[in-house]
Amino acid sequence: MKKTLYLLGLILTMMSCGDDNTPKDIDEPQPDEPKITNVKTFEKVKVAFADGASQSAEKTVSFPTDIENIKTVKMYIQDFCPNKDCDEWDRFANIYVKDKTSNEWYEIGRFITPYWVGTEKLERGYEIDVTDFKSLLTGSTELKIYTETWNAKGRTYSVDFDFEYGTPDYKYSAVVPVFQYNKSSIDGVPYGKTHDFDMDKQINIAATTEIAYLRTIISGWGHATPNDTDGRGCAEWCYRTHHININGTQTFEHNLEGIGCADNPINNQSPGNWKPDRAGWCPGMVVPVRFDNLQKTLFGSSFGFEYEFEDWTNNNGNGEAYYAISTFVVVKSNNPITKPVVTD
């Protein structure tokens, strides 16, 4: 009898608990939230052209100094245009950090402004991962923001950075430019004509480097002819394949083709011509970064670098074509690192 009562009690207990025997009053452990330090830099600064205004603005800011504990760095750019009171055209724009050793400005991000509107449809504006530049984004740091605007309305920006603490992929990193022909859309490398821009370099990466890669931003400008068979002029519209040659051998490809302009979340650019695909960029979007990993066999010696455009000849029928381009070499290691050396 006692055994029967015990079994009955056990069954009733199990039924009262249901199928889930997990205690109801214990919360599941939650992962730790990432620790983020936010740094505001430019705050509603205006860049314009006319009446003494400047197309660029500069500012010195204070960033965290414990960069060995920083996992990622994200930059957010808000572009304000209330009541369409801004430059209505799709303008070339970028942001730079100054290297404290060379005093050279390094392009850390590029974007093209939208027609007629700002970034109000994006919660924090444009987002750009700038972790590759964290060795420069530390302590007292100079920044510059530029827009190729040609009227007094210009553009108004706020820029802030999120420094996420955590274990980085590598403890140490460094970045140096291979070249920068990126001051504006029309200060880029002429396409389809002879020019004197140096696209050939020698790069030396220390043997102790653990990983290295190239970081390139490129955007075309102009409507030069002859048009392609589909009516696309160069270099804004014409789809092209560029190559990076390492020691004289074609090693990497950059396909400049459509990236989905019609899917842009900034989809209120009326009456602008924002939907048709350009060659590698869109109005109201960040110009994408192109990454190319370098083989470890190149470390410890000097190797040749050449950036090569696809063959095409401008027939002078509709102006000029340009490619604004910057390429950096990024190196990383878990041991103290030596910067790459780039020479002509």
UniProtKB/TrEMBL annotation:
SMART domains from the UniProt entry: N-glycanase_N (SM01290)
Keywords: Disulfide bond, Glycosidase, Hydrolase
Domain annotation Peptide-N-glycosidase F N-terminal: ranges: 38-163
Gene Ontology molecular function, alphabetical: hydrolase activity, acting on glycosyl bonds; oxidoreductase activity, acting on paired donors, with incorporation or reduction of molecular oxygen, reduced ascorbate as one donor, and incorporation of one atom of oxygen
Origin superkingdom: Bacteria
Protein name: Peptide-N-glycosidase F, N terminal
Species this chain originates from: Paenimyroides marinum
